[in-house]
Structures are given as C-alpha cells and as structure tokens.
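User: My collaborator sent over this chain with a note saying "see what the structure looks like." That's all I know about it. Can you take a look?
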Amino acid sequence: MSRTLRAEILVIVVAAVVVAIGSWQWLGGPHALRTPGEAARAALVCGGALLLLWLLVDRFVRARVEGPVHTLTHGLEERVGRTADELATRARELDALTERLHAMQLEAVRSERFAALGQTMGTLAHELGTPLNSVLGYTQLLRQQEMDPERSAKLDVIESQVRRMIETIDRTLSRTREGVLEVEDVDVRRIVDEVLTLVSARAAKQHIDIAPEIAKELNDVRADPVALRQVLVNLVNNALDAEETRRIVIRIATPPSPVPTGNLEIEVSDDGAGIPRDEQPRIFEAFYTTKEPGRGTGLGLAIVDHLVRAHGGDISVESIPSRGTTFRVRLPCGFAS
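Assistant: Without extra context I'll predict from the sequence alone. Here is the result:
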C-alpha cells in the first residue's frame, strides 16, 4: 500500500473518530456537555469534522474507485470500437468477395452460353454460307452478260451485301469462338452510313423513320470495323423489332480531341412499347428473348454485349413501358492503340 493511500485512510479514520466522540458527547455520554457554549463548540467541531469526513470520503472514492472504473470503461470503449471497426472491415471484405464470386458465377454462365453460341454459330455459318456463296456465284455469272448501267449498279449492291454477309458470319463465328478482334482506325461516320444502307429497306417497309444524329466533329477510333458495324446493326434491328416503334434515333459522338482518350458514345433509341422492368436484367443473355416465337433468336443483344466487352467497353439499357428504349454503348476510343 502506498504512503499516499495510508495517509488518506488515516485522515479519514481520525475524522470519523472526532465525529463519533463529538456525537457521543452531544448525546449525553460520560463527559456530557453542560453549558450552551460547550455544546455550541462541540457542535461546530463535530460539524466541521463531519464535513471534512464527507469531503475526504468523496475524494477517496473519486480517486480510488471512479478513476480506475473510468479508465477501465474508456479502455473497454476503445477495444469495442476497434473490434467494431475490424468487424466492419471484415464485413466489407466479405461483401466484396461475395460480389466477386457472383461476378465469377455470371462469367461462368456467360462462358457456357457463349460456348453454346459458338456451336450454334458454326451451324449457322455452314447453313447460311452455302446458299450465300451460291448467290455470289450467280451474281458473278450475271456480270458476264450485257446489262444496262441501272441493273449493273443493283447487281453491285447485291454482290457487296452478300460479301459483307459472308464476312460478318465468318468473323462473328471466329470472335464467338476465340474472342479475337481485328483492330484498326475506323471512320465511324462511314460505318453508320453502311448500317443505314443495310436497314433502310426494312425500315421503309415498316414505315419507321430512322434519324441519325452524328456529331459534327467525329474522329476516327481504334476498333474492329466489322464488330462495330455488327453492334449497330443488331441494336437497330432490335429497335425495328420493338412493337409500336415509329421512330429510331442513332446518336454518335466522340471526344473533340483526336487524342486516343475518352469513349465513343453510341445511343440507339426507339419510341416503342419498351421492355418490362423484370425482364431487363436478362436481355443480354444468350438465347433469351422477349419477342414472340419466330420473331427473335435471343442472340442479337448477346452478341452486342460480347463484342462491346471484347473492346473493353460497356453497354446499358434504359426502358420505360409505353415510352421506348435506349441502349447506350461506350467504347474506349484508343482501344489497343
């Protein structure tokens, strides 16, 4: 026991004895006080001793009891705080791991579906390639005959589109199997013009207006031209398939600087019936379609998603029932540059 503690206890004991003696005399002990003056002095001494005793006991309790309790409580609060922070950190790590596992599961499902897509594309390439090559052969035979310039120009269009279809089938097949892109500098405006040529006949037949809104300053980007054309064609065809569509808008923009930074922004919007909210999360899955039987294969948007991801980009959809749908694609302008 420390000297300070012994001294404090001794003072408290002395004060308690003084209070006890004074109280005893005041109450009529063997040396009871007889005169009023003695009684007053005794009361004063007893009261002072009592006050001193109360102060000493209060100080003792604060110093010897409340101090350690406060220290202990503060230490426990710090430990609880550190433990809570550690638990929060572990919870965040667990959430991150859960999201990562979910992403890996989705990627595994996507890979499995694209493996099936690759097999399907192989079958389609064979089934479509044979008649297309036959059409191409007959166009070349027709070229050997004399014809007026108008018919010759129409034959040029047929031959170029058939060659493009064969090229698209072959390159789409190779990408779905290997994920290989043939990247080069691409004139985006030319790609849009080609897409408009491909879909204009169908749009006219369905009485649907297609309005391109192309930025005035549109720089070349690094991309696979066939893949980029396929992305646009599939998105426009998807809009043409939408019920109640009367107008489609294609918006294209690139950063104002030719430096290969930023994103190529592509938007394809329609004013059709829209996509139900509960079906939107699945529209990029292979073989999933919201269209009526016979109107869709469920491959168009899956191929778009695959090609956009292969470019290091992303695609999103915004759809409001009865008001239309907008697909937004962002591709890095300097991809693989």
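A starting point for your reply to your collaborator: The chain has a mean pLDDT of 76.
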